[in-house]
């Protein structure tokens, strides 16, 4: 600091001490060196700049000496490439976000709640009623099947009884014809001695029907045997052939006998025409 009327005080600076054996050398430019301007620190970003070749060092993955044989196989085998890309696609697809489910509306949500409450309150009762009704229906079905089975069994027993009865009546009918053929022609036979091909007896006003004659002669008979049975019956009741038995019957009843025989012959012709 300068004092008025006197000289400025000289400032002294502390000198740096260096370790023994080492002297501070000031860097002075060499007389023979030619300095060149250093490149800009971002000069590698300049267009067209490339790093020097020695900056590349072969790695264990890409060096020619240590290259994985998989890459050679990759180049030669198209299947390996397809498998690789397929696995990549699968893993990528698997990681895709799942689309969110559509949101329910309030009415849909309310309907779902209402249905759940109804099921909880009335569903069990409804199922019990349905099960009970199904059980009753099974019982009714079982009862119907029982009735139908009993009806079939009854009809079967009835057919067997009627079959046995027909066998007896057919036997009696055949025996009556044997007696008529062997009877003495003395005019003692009556109309009641004519053997008739039906079960029930008829009054004078009743007509003989084809169904009762067919039932008597053909019930339970096979198709081929029916023709034979009909042919034999038609010969027995043919009016001209039956006339040979006239001397055996009482003369006063012959006219009514021939009328009866002619009626039976007509019914047999009708049956024969129907089964041809």
Give a verbal description of the structure:
The chain is elongated. Among the domains are: about 105-180; about 185-275, no CATH class. By secondary structure, it is an all-alpha fold. Helix content is about 55%, strand content about 0%. The chain contains 7 helices and no strands. Helix 5 runs antiparallel to helix 7. The relative contact order is 0.05. The longest helix has about 80 residues, at about 105-180. One of its GO terms (cellular component) is nucleus. This is J domain-containing protein. Keywords: ANK repeat, Nucleus, Phosphoprotein, Repeat. Its main location: nucleus. It is found in: Nucleus.
In a nutshell, what does this entry contain?
One of its GO terms (biological process) is negative regulation of canonical NF-kappaB signal transduction. With 276 residues, the chain is an all-alpha fold. Among the domains are: 107-182; 185-274, no CATH class.
């Amino acid at each position: 600091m300068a004092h008025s009327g006197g000289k400025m005080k000289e400032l002294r600076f502390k000198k740096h001490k260096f370790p023994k054996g080492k002297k501070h050398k000031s860097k002075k430019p060499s007389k023979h060196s030619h300095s060149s301007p250093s490149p800009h620190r971002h000069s590698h970003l300049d267009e067209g700049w490339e790093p020097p070749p020695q900056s590349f060092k072969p790695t264990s993955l890409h060096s020619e000496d240590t290259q994985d044989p998989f890459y050679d196989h990759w180049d030669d085998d198209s299947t390996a490439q397809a498998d690789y890309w397929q696995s990549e696609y699968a893993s990528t697809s698997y990681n895709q976000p799942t689309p969110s489910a559509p949101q329910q509306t309030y009415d849909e949500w309310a309907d779902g709640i209402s249905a759940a409450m109804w099921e909880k309150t009335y569903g069990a009762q409804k199922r019990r009623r349905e099960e009970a009704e199904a059980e009753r229906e099974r019982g009714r079905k079982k009862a119907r099947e029982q009735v139908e089975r009993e009806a079939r069994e009854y009809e079967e027993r009835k057919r067997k009884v009627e079959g046995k009865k027909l066998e007896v009546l057919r036997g009696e009918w055949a025996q009556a014809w044997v007696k008529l053929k062997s009877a003495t022609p003395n005019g003692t036979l009556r109309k009641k001695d004519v053997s008739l091909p039906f079960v029930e007896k008829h009054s004078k006003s009743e007509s003989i029907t084809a169904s009762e004659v067919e039932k008597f002669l053909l019930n339970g008979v096979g198709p081929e045997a029916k023709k034979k049975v009909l042919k034999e019956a038609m010969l027995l009741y043919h009016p001209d052939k039956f006339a040979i038995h006239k001397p055996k019957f009482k003369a006063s009843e012959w006219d009514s006998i021939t009328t009866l025989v002619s009626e039976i012959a007509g019914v047999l012709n009708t049956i024969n025409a129907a089964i041809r």
